[in-house]
Amino acid sequence: MSRDITYEEQNKGYCEINGINGIKCKNYKLCKAILPDWWYECKENYLCTNCHMLFGTWGTNNGKGELEFEDILECPICLEKRLCVSYPRCNHKICISCFKKCMYFNEDGSDEQTDNIENLKKCCLCRK
Ligand SMILES: [Zn+2]
Ligand SMILES: [Zn+2]
Ligand SMILES: [Zn+2]
Fold first, then answer.
1. Which has the least CB within 10 A, 10, 86, 98, 99?
2. Number of separate domains in the chain
3. Which ligand sits closest to the CA of 127?
4. Final residue belonging to a domain, choices 15, 33, 66
5. Ligand 1 centroid vs 46 CA: distance in angstroms?
């Protein structure tokens, strides 16, 4: 992947936690992470560390890293029509709130790691 200036231009954001202007993580709708300007030069992607570790190719994972979002879709778990996100290793989509529960994130988006890292990334529907 080469540097994507268009993406950078269209996805500027401000990180209140770190007080910096930067670029949104590709999974911003899920992780709300803002990357510093130098990120691409260092990492050659637009994924925050969390997304890279949980959904990407880090370690033995073979996730797609960049998840797909669909604004209004009926979630197969809670049956609400909401913003949905795809799993890292298949194309099933569930809503962000169910996704966070499945991935053992907290509802507020903070990421408490659990011991069972394998379960973290499995799809509730096809177990991939
Ligand atoms: Zn991210
Ligand atoms: Zn749901
Ligand atoms: Zn699946």
1. 10
2. 2
3. 3
4. 66
5. 8
